[in-house]
Amino acid sequence: MGTxxxxxxxxxxxxxxxxxxxxxxxxxxxxxxxxxxxxTDYRGKEPNTYVCPICLGLPGTLPVVNKKAIDFAIMVGLAxxxxxxxxxxxxxxxxxxxxxxxxxxxxxxxxxxxxxxGLGGHVTIEINKQKKTINLTRIQLEEDPGxxxxxxxxxSSDYTLVxxxxxxxxxxxxxxEPDLRxxxxxxxxxxxxxxxxEHLGVADGSLEGSMRCDANISIRGGNRVEVKNISSFKAVQxxxxxxxxxxxxxxxxxxxxxxxxRHWDDEKGITISLRTKEEEHDYRYFPEPDLVPIEIxxxxxxxxxxxxxxxxxxxxxxxxxxxQIPPYDAGVLTSSKALADFFENxxxxxxxxxxxxxxxxxxxxxxxxxxxxxxxESTVTPEQFVNMLKYIDTGTISRRSAKKVLWDMxxxxxxxxxxxQEDGHQRIGDENVIRQFVDEIxxxxxxxxxxxxxxxxxxxxxxxxVMRKTRGTADPKITYQLIKEKIDxxxxxxx
Amino acid sequence: xxxxxxxxxxxxxSMLQNGDITAEELxxxxxxxxxxxxxxxxxxxxxxxxNAINQARLLDKxxxxxxxxxxLAGIPIAIKDNICTKNIRTTCSSKMLDNYVPPYNATVxxxxxAEGGIIIGKTNMDEFAMGTTTESSYYQITHNPWSLxxxxxxxxxxxxxAVAADExxxxxxSDTGGSIRCPASFxxxxxxxxxxxxISRYGLISYACxxxxxxxxxxxxxxxxLLLNVLVGRDPYDSTTLNRPKIDFLATLDEDxxxxxxxxxxxxxxxxxxxxxxxxxxxxVHLLESFGVTYDEISIPLIxxxxxxxxxxxxxxxxxxxxxxxxxxxGYRVEKDEGEWNEIFxxxxxxxGPEVRRRIMLGTYALxxxxxxxxxxxxxxxxxxxxxxxxxxxxxxxxxxxxTMPTTPFKIGExxxxxxxxxxxxxxxxxxxxxxxxxxxxPCGFSDGLPIGLQLIGNxxxxxxxxxxxYKFQQETDYHKKKPPIGG
Lengths: 495, 488
Ligand SMILES: [Zn+2]
Hints:
heterodimer; A: Arc Repressor Mutant, subunit A; nine-stranded mixed sheet; three-stranded antiparallel sheet; 16 helices; 16 strands; 18% strand; B: alpha/beta; Amidase signature (AS) enzymes; 13% strand; globular; binds zinc ion
């Protein structure tokens, strides 16, 4: 993301930027919703079919906490080094909106006697080769609201449709301190957070809308603006960059930034004012009387701790140690669980970690970035990737062709064999075949042949023409050899 | 011999078991009675005659052909209309839920059906259980069988009046701030609110979740114990239910009560208490004394704050619980297809009656930013302190005793224009809800032909003890056996 770095630099250090994030992560690996037995794989399903009396908030129904959700939240809390309190509570957040079946959301709260499931905590990111700690305020559990959809756009639609399939899905809200200093830091932080969460096996961030983000951003001394509705981690950097430019322009123009909530419009790439401070909701939080406090015993915590899988930082160290790859590369490879898994799956099939790592770092990631997709969104499998590398080893394709083949694999979703066959990337190693091309070139470029007889340097031109004719598939060594032999013969004849 | 409908569930249980009567005969007997008296009483919102007869027939067959004999086999029971019954309209006596038909049964309904109980109807109540008179019902005013010009009490007034008028054998009510005990007192019935968490609330349409419990309204203590045997127990669908060991409440009714110590808080016998009521209560105390029970007059000062504490908590929770009735998800919808959603919402909300609206607004206020600490949080603190004061007394006393209501039943219309006066009459009942303690109301006398109720409050999970004392009292008195003069 070269452009991102440039833009960040544009903002220089003249003003200190304060960014805090509020991340909502669906714990998608839970089989049932937070307070009822409904299944969670609602994506792409008929609206309002993944519902029951409880998550529809039918009069008289009561919530029952999914214990596995508590397990998962504790695990995330431990991974983020939060303090896990021995007693945690659910609170009601009251607001009138059609996306909540009950017109209130069961959530957690850190005021008015509330204790969320995780307090404090931090995430370490690496920026410009320096480690930086981003502190967390808290993590807490809550239920996801339903989804509102409009015919056309929110303004042109005559009515609103509500789908409650998502209502009651477990959300983990992670709130940071305003420790982030640039949109790029925010992106790196989210990348790291996602990698940790995916390594824990509690969520799959690639599912649409499963990780969402609100951001608070201000220039020190100025008013704070909250940006809502950033529905993917990818959009966070863009939304923050936009907002930062807006605030800086206002400052330059001598306009005071209003404390308000703004809405990120992903399509237009701008933020729009939603409401000012005076219009803020009063959520009237109070302890959820339908649920009892949850006692989290030290035994429970220790049991979860003992089941924790390897986390990205540990995996990075292991990559450096076991595969002898540079720390920077190991950091990139573990920045996403899918990528780290891809790397290690390749090693299982082809035990050359350094070669694999180099190809991932130099080519694979560049292509994925160009397409703005992630490894698990592409069709390239470790098998295909490794096969491509093996074709280089066997001389079937040249290194140069391989780069082209990989690009086609990613872009067209085809396996390497097919691309090699269709596009003639297969390297020509057969002397007789190459000799035919050499003969043709000698006929086409008689002057160059004469030059070559006088000076070996001109052989390079002739071999270049052969390569061009064979679209780079002729083995360069053999080609050079054959041309040299033929020139030597002509020299003898001339003498 | 008495008609079948006049008997208790306990008596009918053995008659059904012995084949002296069939479930079908019993149902017919009851519906004949209902036909004669219901036009005067108006206890029911929905009657399920056909349903009940079919069920009774099925049950008779089952009783003949199998070993099944559930605790409630063939026993008719009336259900307060805030308890969800599958495929049977459940209105909370509100225009808001006029057409609401739940697709599921409350846990208590499942338990009753599993024991062979027959649901005969849904009873009238104060709208969303908010009231002390059953006058705030959207549908009708229920009349006290003892005097048709008087209210039956509330909010479970329909259930209490139905039992009192022999229009059912058993009834379920719910008690958020005296809503079982007040109508029990006013209709000369036995009613208990159990320790919080003893009976599942799953399917009880919430008014104030942290205060309320479903419970029996019955003709006597024995029926009360019988029904508790069915109702009490942990429910995986209600996280607030306790894991109580299985208790047979009938088994210990006969045990001696000699040596028990009773405390009578002066706060329960204050100036608002009618003279006839305090006289009846003292008579009851002296009778208990004659069984070897001792008593002291004591003070639990925070009882004076129980009413405001109760109303702040109840209204706050209600403001949130009732937010879902907006005409879009649930509830009455104005005839209007277009408009901004907040406008339609505001109009839909007018389907609530004035008392419900008042409580939603006050509750919303109490939870608002800037007022939360002053009201809601303070009420929670008073709640803890009040519980502590009760617990301290239970170190010296087994039971706290007083009247259930400070007066005999009000005249219809008497309280409607003065909500504060009405709230004050909850002085004796709400402490048990605020503290979560069990409390029973039993008949202890009459004044001008109107019933007076005696309330016994026990320490947490001490229902057995309450029932035992109340049972002994009923063994030695016949107030509970008196029938109201409605003829029929
Ligand atoms: Zn559900």
